[in-house]
Amino acid sequence: MTRILFLLGIYSAFLSASNLAVAQGNLTAGGDVYLAGSSSPHSERVPRDIFVSGFAVTLDVEVGADAHIAGFDVEVENSVGKDLYAAGATISIEAPIGEDLTVSGFNVRLKKNASVMGNTRIAAGRITIDAPLSGSLIAAGGDIILNAPVTGNVRLTGADISFGNDAKISGTLNYSSDEEIDIPSNVISSDRVQFTKLTAPGILNDLNEALNGKKSSVWAVVFTIAAVFLIILVFLLVVAAIFLAFKPEMVEDLRSRASRHPGKSFLFGLVGMAALYGLVPLSATTIIGLPFIPFALLAIIIFCVFGGLLGTYAIFWRIADSVGIHSNNISTRLLVIGGGLIILSIIKFIPVIGWLVNLTVLLIGLGSITILLLQKSNVSETT
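Above: the chain's sequence. Below: its structure in token form.
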């Protein structure tokens, strides 16, 4: 996955430096082909490497060397001479791969018409292997189904691992799962199998043991949840303190707007949220946008944190003001924000209503930020 994004990022920079028409999304250089946003990327055999990005990508031409593909829906319908690197939500491979295969996605399937002459590496939520593999296999996922022969050694890590009638492992099998499974002798002899119990590390393991009654009390669960909540609360209060100390006028302007016009702020919050989440699929549709996907995800997290803090501050400071709390010192305001965060966290446990209340608070804060950004944009355009 990292190699795919890195190489496609290099191509993006090359396009920009060459002043090429990005809308065309088609470039050939030194025998390599670079494509973006195409469902049927090329009409002729590619003699060397191919780089493809788009929402739905179907590789239906022969590739002489390596293929690098990134998209939401990826299908490989023709042979790849050397290595195939693919990342996406749904990945389907039904053609021979000359050397190694490296794939990451939500749902990955190697169909019977496919084959891999080198090593295979797969990470996905659901993995189905119906194609023969000549090298080793390393696979990690939630559900793993192996229904084909594997010549080399196999390493599987998954919650649910199963073997079909056509499965046969010529090398060794090392697998990790929740429980040891019964592997048919026609798949592999027991002396070549090694099992390692899959356990959650650290805090997650403590939670699991306590919830299953393996510890004397549930205090471990309570303590762990409280510790995690306290760490998050302290982090949010530190962020709030920084902005209250260094940007008090801006914070008060945002709070005042959200408090005086909660309905308007809520509507603009919907607009801001839609714009933020729309950045991810928009970036994924072109090669130029691929390197910006991590920044889009980071922007969503940052704005949600700031929006949630601002919405909490606006609503609970208004409540505090109505009961006679008018102090302007930072400590009082942080106490109000902290109390609001605790109350909202408790409200989350109320089915349906809880998350609706928290979402409303988030959108009110995010809307106030959106309005400020739009106002600054208009001012810069007029000047």
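The helical segments are 2-18, 202-211, 219-246, 248-260, 262-284, 293-322, 330-347, 353-382.
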